[in-house]
Automatic annotation (TrEMBL):
Key word Acetylation present: no
TM region positions: 49-69, 81-99
The protein, known as: MFS transporter
First and last residue of the signal peptide: none
Keywords, comma-separated and alphabetical: Membrane, Transmembrane, Transmembrane helix
Top-level taxon: Eukaryota
Length: 109
């Protein structure tokens, strides 16, 4: 119920996990708005018609990584997996900042 959800708010674990959800939401918006909209749509190899396929491939890759990271978490602990997840989130904007995709580099294709 809604009351049960509010009862969880005082627990610090909920607030720590909420940062992961916030980061996921920001990265999803960045991928859809900037990476797909600005780079993939303008790429001669991908183009606007491929954005749906790229989004599906992103989801498929995320599902595969979730399976692998689930196994790793059981063996090595959740801390390592959370660190790897944070690194993966950081790689998206850092890759664009480090080498902005454009006509000069073939939009990374």
């Amino acid at each position: 119920t809604l009351r049960a959800a509010f009862d969880l708010w005082p627990h610090p674990q909920v607030w720590c996990l909420s940062l992961t959800n916030l980061t996921f939401g920001l990265c999803t918006g960045y991928m859809n708005g900037v990476v797909n909209g600005e780079f993939a749509a303008k790429s001669p190899k991908f183009g606007e018609a491929s954005i749906g396929t790229l989004m599906a491939l992103t989801s498929l890759l995320a599902a595969g990584c979730a399976l692998l990271l689930g196994r790793l978490a059981r063996r090595a602990g959740k801390g390592l997996v959370l660190g790897l997840g944070g690194l993966a989130f950081a790689c998206i904007p850092l890759g664009v900042l480090g080498a902005r995709p454009g006509p000069a580099n073939g939009y990374w294709s």
